[in-house]
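Justification of computing resources. Each target in the renewal requires a structure prediction run like the one illustrated here; the chain below, 234 residues long, is used simply to show the kind of job we budget for.
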Amino acid sequence: MSVLTDRASLARAFYRLTATSADSPALTEWDVSTLEALYQFLQYGAWDAQAWLIDGGLADRWVSAYTLLSWSGTDSSDGGKYQALPSDFLRLAGDDYRSAIRNPATGLRWGKEVDFPDRWSVRGRHYWLQDENLWIARAAQTNGAKVLDYHHKLATLADGTTVDFPSEHRSLIVAYAADRAMGDSWLPGGMEMQAKITANLKKLQREAHRRIRRTSGPRKMRNAQRTGATHWMT
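Resulting structure tokens:
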């Protein structure tokens, strides 16, 4: 059985949850494009749900690799070097233990992420995000290509195109879309509908949280991964 496979089926689920329809007076009386508004809520709902699942531990989903080749800027004038992030960038696929930058041939991780305010206090093998760019610190050498592992943002939803989302969690897209719609005046139902939408979102979050863990054993403490003793990117 196919479950909420594309934008059209997600839209029908949204209508069921919010007690609306494509020609609902609650929508049309505001002289807005019903489908345009609905599709916007569903798209942002998909991104909200995606980010929540990644935060919740679904770290192996939506991961892409981006080759880092040509750096701009100089240490003297810019305080480091930078490259533009990929257009579908959502967030880094790394953590305090594992850098998001690696050698593509050996898999050896390079560097450590630092917070943006700390960028002036580090040198060498450190990186951070600033605006739409990935930066490396002063004195970080750029010998050879490196790869950035990152979570890519879900593509724009479309009718007839299967959404790249775990089937068991797709109801979260609708739940987040409805949660965003509560901020608009056209959504009918008042406080009762708002309470229903909020309760539905929390219920689905609890269910997803239980399902995210797919390993059988307890989570183990890890030692920080060794990234090397010099500031050279090798």
